[in-house]
Design brief:
Strand order of the largest sheet: 1-2-3-6-7
Distance between the termini: 44 Å
Catalytic activity: N-terminal N-formyl-L-methionyl-[peptide] + H2O = N-terminal L-methionyl-[peptide] + formate
CATH architecture: Alpha-Beta Complex
Helix content: 10-25%
CATH topology: Peptide Deformylase
Radius of gyration: 16 Å
Binding site for Fe cation: 122, 165, 169
Number of helices: 4
GO molecular function: metal ion binding; peptide deformylase activity
EC number: 3.5.1.88
Structural class: alpha+beta
Largest sheet: 5 strands, antiparallel
Order of helices and strands: HHEEEEEEEHEH
Function: Removes the formyl group from the N-terminal Met of newly synthesized proteins. Requires at least a dipeptide for an efficient rate of reaction. N-terminal L-methionine is a prerequisite for activity but the enzyme has broad specificity at other positions.
CATH class: Alpha Beta
Number of domains: 1
CATH superfamily: Peptide deformylase
Length: 202
């Protein structure tokens, strides 16, 4: 389900009907780099995507429009094969923060890894998936923000997990591709890896 970003004007409200589900080839296709400087239609698409995340986390709005709660959304999840995604979640201090990334690239990462004990979820996956998804504990990302300014940021913990999940989407990778096929709860050998919540309590 490939779409033109002209559909996603600033006033357009994304609903679950717009979310591409697993099985669609769009989710298995590597997204194309976004043309810079950032075009108005791409900025508006990012604004729509961010508003969806905010709506999905608002109890009244999400109930009214039957939205699943999300903390990250990549462009190919709404049918746009463009290398951009948004995040709306709490930072280490508990404050809500929003990030829009265009042409993001992980330029360095930790050796240590973490995982969510309850596995990961995805707006494009309507079924429960069990198993550990190994992620780097921290990542440094380089890319552009919603205004087209170059940005370099470091993320750790839960935010790092979300960043890696969304960049995987842009590369046609689903989170469950990283779960051990033979034993979903087997962790990588020879590397320091722990549950996210163990890491938080240290």
């Amino acid at each position: 389900m490939l779409l033109s970003s002209t559909k996603f004007k600033a006033e357009y409200m994304i609903t679950m009907d717009d979310i591409v589900r697993e099985g669609d080839s769009v989710l298995r296709t590597v997204a194309e780099p976004v043309q810079m400087p950032l075009q108005a239609e791409d900025q508006e698409a990012l604004q729509c995507m961010m508003q969806f995340l905010k709506n999905s986390q608002d109890p009244e709005v999400s109930a009214k429009f039957k939205l699943r709660s999300g903390v990250g959304l990549s462009a190919n999840q709404i049918g746009l094969l463009k290398r951009m995604f948004v995040m709306y979640l709490r930072d280490d201090k508990g404050n809500m923060v929003e990030h829009a990334w265009v042409n993001p690239k992980v330029i360095s990462h930790s050796v240590a890894m973490i995982y969510l004990p309850e596995s990961e979820g995805c707006l494009s996956v309507d079924r429960p998936v069990h198993g550990f998804v190994p992620r780097y504990e921290s990542v440094k990302v380089k890319g552009y923000n919603m205004t087209g300014k170059e940005v370099v940021m470091k993320f750790k913990g839960y935010q790092a997990i979300v960043v890696q999940h969304e960049i995987d989407h842009l590369d046609g990778i689903m989170f469950y591709d990283r779960i051990n096929e033979e034993n979903p709860f087997k962790l990588p050998q020879g590397v320091e890896i722990r549950s996210l919540y163990e890491q938080k309590s240290r």
